[in-house]
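Notebook B, p. 112. Complex prediction, attempt 2.
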Amino acid sequence: MIDFVKRIIYSIREYLILIILLLVSLSLISQNETPSLQKIKSFAFVNIAVINNIFHNIFISNNDSDEIIMLKRRNAELMLTVNKLREYAIENSEIKGMLNFTNESESDLLSANIIAKNFGNIIGNIIINRGEKDSIKVGMPVINHLGLIGIVYQTSNDFSLIRTLRNSKLKIAVEAQRSGVQGILSWEVEKLTLKNIPATYDINIGDRIITSDFSTLFPPKIPIGVVVKKENNISGLVSDIVIQPYVDFNKINNLFVKKLVISKELNEFELNLLKNIKPNE
Amino acid sequence: MNKYLIPILIFIPILFSQIFAVPFISFDNIGPNLILILLVFYTLLNGQIYGSILGFIFGLFFDLLSGGIIGSAMFSLTSAGFIAGYFFNPNKIETNFSLLNFFFIVFLSATIESFLFTILGPDEFNFDLLKLIFERSVVPGFYTSIIALIVIVLLPKRNYQND
């Protein structure tokens, strides 16, 4: 009897091994957000960053002089300021007079170089050469002179992992700058999309999309992109709005981490959100 | 042990190329899968069980180091190794490494690998079946096969029977 079972098992061993390996893989997929796997991922992330940094230093010469980096920083600051000015032009003069422009225009940008990019259909991550020792914290927004790039998702002492707009796990509260229409922006395999916007809402091709006042992860009014397409669904009641981001993710080399100066209460609230639901809103 | 050690050692530079160099030769996020070429190559030399286990190991490293969903590449590469293993025949190794055969085996494995990786990856899977099959499975499979052909042509001729 035992021999018979052994013979059977031997004859189907390829399939048994395949099934066991596939079951292990599937169980790992379902366990992705558990602390133990997150710890392993963090360990792998730190190591790949170190190796890639060596590779980057050997093979890729960084031609950006200090002056260019300084100018890029100035560009990023100007981008934020220009965007605020655009916003002010839209608002009426009464509200404009009430704004405390001096306080809001303060920015604290930390320049960083990209040492690794990983862009796939759903994964859009960047590793930068700044980490906790540069006071980088999880949840800080990442921008360049064109607009929003993403959010700091993981940090080690010397490196940080940025979850970019091209990552399906990052969902951002945004608004159309002209009409104020609100929505949740996410990466849908190939494009940035605002899902399920009622067809009657005032949103047109060419409208600028910026981070919303209601965002709990990003400061408001950071430019993201421009509306390029409206896709009506079958019922015709709601549309998906396709956004072309201002940032060309294939070309970026330098970026800035915006060190947010926010109240402790809001800070804790944001980090709590991050702990519970990842960078989703 | 060497049976697994050598491919894993070769795998390390291939993995870094896959993560950091392949995006430069990708069109619309469709690029070749260098890891799969290595997997098929060693599976055709060593068999189906070996291919499944090697695919599992490659997938684990890829998932960990690419920052993706742990388990997705493990699943798809294990399946690809298993499928490539169907073509293993100790008496026909030379034949399997002929241009046309190798192209076909890589194409089939890569297409299925891309298909599985795509459907296991996104949280919100919402694109149509035709697009999934052609744009996200067949096209990357074809691209991978083309690169595999180049690899086979460039590899020095050897007697695979002795490997």
